Prior knowledge:
Layout: H1 4-17, H2 25-30, E1 37-41, E2 44-47, E3 52-55, H3 58-61, H4 70-82, H5 93-105, E4 110-116, H6 119-136, E5 144-148, E6 178-181, H7 196-214, E7 219-224, H8 240-251, E8 254-258, E9 282-285, E10 297-302, H9 303-306, H10 326-341, H11 344-362, E11 369-375, E12 378-383, H12 399-409, E13 412-413, E14 420-423, H13 431-451
Parallel strand pairs: 3-13, 5-6, 5-7, 7-8, 8-9
Antiparallel strand pairs: 1-2, 2-3, 4-10, 9-10, 11-12, 12-14
Amino acid sequence: MTTTQETEALRRSALEHVWMHNRDWTQMAEEGGPTIIVEGKGIRVTDSEGKSWIDVNGGYSSVNIGYGRTEIAEAAREQMRKLAYFPQGTTTEPLVRFVEKIGQIAPGSLERTWPVTGGSEANETAIKIARAYHKRRGDPGRYKIISRKGSYHGATGGVMWLGGATGLADYEPAYPGMVYAPQPNPYRCELGGETPSECAVRCAQAIEDLILFHGPSTVAAVIAEPVSSSATAAVPGDEYWPMLRQICDRHGVILIADEVICGFGRTGKMFAMEHWDVVPDIMTIAKGVVSSYLPIAATVATAEVADVFGGKDNIFRQALTFGGHPVAAAAALKNIELMEEEGLVQNSAEVGGYFLEQLHQLKDDHESIGDVRGLGLLLGIDLVANRDTKERYPTELHLGERLSEKLREQGLILRATDRGIGFGPPLCITRSEVDEIVAGVDRALGSVEAQLPSA
Ligand SMILES: Cc1ncc(COP(=O)(O)O)c(C=O)c1O
C-alpha cells in the first residue's frame, strides 16, 4: 500500500503522462481520479487508499480465473529465468505446449494456431488469412468482410472498421470491403422478428442476401461473436449459427468466430460455439486464454484453411516480435490448467445461471430494466425509458454516467452506458458474491431512477 502523499504524486503524474483508454484526463482530474489499483484477489481489487472494490467487469471481461493467482506468476517467473524470449523460426517449449493444448480443446479440426499479443491482432490476422486463403486457391476477387452492425472486434487499422461503429470519422478513409449485416438481438430485432427463432432466421438469411447481392465471388469472410458482448450479451436464437455455417459453406465464404470475450468459459462452455455445435473456419482467442496476466492471444485455423499455406513458396507472410512470447505462453498454459482443474467453466455455467435469475428478479422493482439476458457469466441488462416502446433514455440525461457513478458508490467496478449494463466478472465468483453485486445494482438503479423523469 502506498501513503496518501505517494498516491497523490502518482495521480498527478498519471494525469500528466498517461493517455488513458477512452477517458479525458481533464474530466478525470475534476473527478479526483484516476483510481490506482494496487492488489487483487479473486473478484476483488484494492486501491492505493486501501478501499476494496468488486471488479464486476473482470478487467475487460478478461480476468477469467480471478486476481492473485501466484501459480501463474510462478510459471511465468520460471520461464523467464530459463529463457525470457526467442523469436519464431525457431520455437520454444511453452509455445509448442500452448498451441498443442489449444488444438486439443478447440472444437473440430481447429488445430493450427498463429500466436499474437491481443484480440485486435488476432482479428487482423484472421482477416488477412481469409483474404489470402481465397487468393492462394485462385479466387482473387474475394476481399469483402461481412460483420454485424454495432459489433466490436478491435481498435487497430483494419478491424476498427468491422461493426460499422460511429465516431470513426477521424480515421477515414474507411477500410475497403466492409459490409454490415443486422445484429441478431432478439430483444431489438431490426428485421422485426418477434421471437428469438424468427430473429435468428431473418438475420442469418440477411447475411445470405448480402452475399448474393455483392456476389459470392467478392466475399472473403463473415466475422461475428457467438454471443454478442457488444450488444450487451445478446444471445442469438438457436437457428442462427447452424444457418450461418450452411450459408458460408454454400458460398465458399470463411466463417470467423471471434471468441475473444466468449472463449475460455465466459459463456459456460470452453468456447461459445459449442452451444450450437458449430465449428468455424477460423476462431480468434485472447483475454481469458491467459486471464490477462500477460499479453497473448491467437488466431486458430482449421487444417483445411491452414493447409492452403503449406509449401516453401506459399507461406503466410507475417511476423510480430512478441507473438508467441514464451513467458506469456507459459502463463497461458498454467491459466488453462488451473481453469480445468478447478472446474471454472462449469462454475461459469452454474453461477452464471443463478446471476441471471437474480437479475431477472430486479425487473419487478425497476421499470428501467427492459431486458435481462446472457449465457454463463456474459450477462447484460438493456435499459429503457419505456418498456412498451423499448425507447431509450435521451442521451442528454447521461444515464450511463449517472449509473456508473452510483455503482462506484456501491463499491462496484461496473461500467454502465446509456444502453445498458454488461457483466463479465471472474469465473471464480460465488453465489454470495453475486448476491452482493445484485444488491448493489438494485440500490444504484433505485437512486438513479429517483433522479430521472418517469417515461
Ligand atoms: C469481441 C472482441 N474482439 C476483439 C477485441 C479486441 O481485443 P484487444 O483489446 O485485446 O485488442 C475485443 C476487446 O474488447 C473484443 O471485445
